[in-house]
Amino acid sequence: MAVDTAACGVNYIDIYQRRGLYPLPLPFVPGQEGAGVVTAVGAGVRDVRPGDRVAWADAQGSYAERTVLDADRTVPVPAGLSFDAAAGVALQGMTAHYLAHDAHRISDGHTVLVHAAAGGVGLLLVQLAKLRGAHVIGTVSTELKERAARAAGADHIVRYGTEDFAARARELTGGTGVDAVYDGVGRATFDQSLECLRPRGCLVLYGQSSGPVPPVDPQRLNAAGSVFLTRPSLTHYLADRRELLARAADVFGWLESGRVTLSIDKVFTLAGARRAHVALESRRTSGKILLRP
């Protein structure tokens, strides 16, 4: 199936692939996520037709004016949703969805800590955690990002560099610890993330923006209180088309209704993809970065 791409999402997985942390055969076109209009379909495609508005989250080569992808991995974009919005939440929105609903199932009354709470996933995850009734502690690096995370619904903010987030998490929970830590930072935060957890709590390590975490002795999980450690990826939480459509429908529906908002920080042309990566890596962004062909 071919799609004229209206917007492409920029994500940390693109950087991991470019750096070689997630090796791909060379040469390759970066990008996993986008939205646009279907221009052609194969003979066996029945559920999608030319002219349909679609989005996707796991099609390699999405930094392009036209993207060729498997029709079964696309989702319909509601008429009331812009392509920018659809591309902006396809990958990160469904990531936040599986993190809050499945990797650790947040329940009413839980306290969770969200690292990089003003990032693309972070802002969405804070909102979904609040929808599920959680008390949210967010970590950020600047005053501007603190304001963004608070606007998304974070109850407490801890600033990297000026506060010990593990000690603060313990203080805010009366010494008990949090039910879950959502950590997309990796090496720089992992050890203290373990220290934040209550007994039988869960560390959801879903990224490594500061670098990969060294090998972990499982005995550390016992010492931390019989805690759980999971290293999930979106692919494994989109196991079939039913699951893909269900997650996308929830995220798009919340966005259309206003229950969830999307913050688009910067938009670049395709020729500006390098600058988009530099901005994301330098931690100068709050919210989503898009490319427009």
Structural class from helices and strands? Answer: alpha/beta
Helix percentage range = 25-40%
By DSSP, the count of extended strands is: 13
Average of the residue pLDDT scores: 96
Work out the radius of gyration: 19 Å
Order of helices and strands: EHEEEEHEHEHEHEHEHEHEHE
The main pleated sheet reads as:
7 strands, mixed
Helix tally?
Answer: 9
Identify low-pLDDT runs.
none
Which geometry do the CA atoms define? Answer: globular
End-to-end CA span:
18 Å
Strand content: 15-25%
Task: Please give a quick description of this structure.
The chain is α/β, with parallel strands linked by helices and 293 residues long.
Question: How is the topology of this model organized?
Answer:
Elements: E1 2-10, H1 12-19, E2 33-40, E3 53-56, E4 66-68, E5 74-76, H2 83-103, E6 111-114, H3 120-131, E7 135-140, H4 143-152, E8 156-159, H5 165-172, E9 178-183, H6 190-196, E10 197-205, H7 219-223, E11 228-230, H8 241-257, E12 264-269, H9 273-281, E13 288-292
Parallel strand pairs: 6-7, 6-9, 7-8, 9-10, 10-11, 12-13
Antiparallel strand pairs: 1-2, 1-4, 1-13, 2-3, 3-5
Helix pairs in contact: 2-3, 2-8, 5-6
